[in-house]
Amino acid sequence: MQILQAVFVGAVQGISEFLPISSSAHIVFAQSIYKIATGSQFLNEVGSQEIFFDIMVHLATLLAVLIFFRKDIIEIIKAFFLGLKNKDYTNPDFKTAVFILAATPITCIVALILKEPTHALVENPKIVSLFLILTGFILYFSEKLKSKNKDMNLKTALWTGLAQGLAVFPGLSRSGLTIATQVFLGMDRVKAARFSFLMSIPVILGASMAYPLLEMDFSQMASFNYKAMFWGFLTSFVVGYLCVKYFMKLLGKVTLKCFSYYCFVVGALMFVLFSVCHRL
């Protein structure tokens, strides 16, 4: 693993973890284009170093969310325990905590069921490009067919948890599906993004730690390129933080349709590119 490779993957992770454009799709496209252009893998075959690096860049984006929403997180935790203590369940922050706790198990169950069937899809960039186009349709029609404005409720939270689990398909954006689901069900875009990012905390933590750590060979850690990992981590954190900050502001001014157009264009271009390359 080289520093430039680590920085590139960190930047892609930071940008597309929070923007509704699918981080997995962009990494698949980058790796596939690099392989076509050079005849070699962008990163080595998945081993302990690659697994550890994946953990690092995901933790970097998690740290970005924790810092940006630190006040919200503290208030939600305080409201949750005060609500349990005083048996007062009316505080909006208490409800947010409950909604996250209710949605997360659904995400985990769906993701575990779909993990194996979707694993091989990362080897097929044409299929991934089609899923990115599907993300575009979901973003577009969530705005076009959205319900009347309403606040978050348990039903919306559960549907959002399901949408987050379906994002295990490479090319389906986690943030895109979760925000679009809420918007379709009547949520304000900015509030939907806030809930999407907050509910990503336990999922990112679990996905980046629990399963990968079981697959690592810790005896190989002495040979890891920690300098490259450091720069990849730092890039992912800085880019991720800036994306959360400015995406939240942007959502108050533009609709999800803007991001749907991006998914349509990139998805279509990548489908054509890999279709042509496959024939050569």
What topology does this entry show?
Layout: H1 3-16, H2 23-38, H3 48-68, H4 70-86, H5 92-119, H6 125-144, H7 154-166, H8 174-184, H9 189-215, H10 226-251, H11 257-279
Helix pairs in contact: 1-2, 1-3, 1-10, 2-6, 3-9, 3-10, 4-5, 5-7, 5-9, 6-8, 6-11, 7-8, 8-9, 9-10
Describe the structure.
There is one protein chain. Helix content is 77%, strand content 0%. The chain has 280 residues and is an all-alpha fold. Helix 1 runs parallel beside helix 10 (226-251) and helix 3 (48-68) runs antiparallel to helix 9. The mean pLDDT is 86.
Keywords:
single chain; mainly alpha; 77% helix; 11 helices; 280 residues; globular
| Structure summary, number of beta strands | 0
Please state the structural category: mainly alpha
Number of structural units classed as domains = 1
Q: What is the end-to-end distance? A: 29 Å
* Overall pLDDT level: 86
Helix fraction, binned, reads over 70%
* Radius of gyration from the alpha-carbon trace, in angstroms: 19 Å
Number of helices: 11
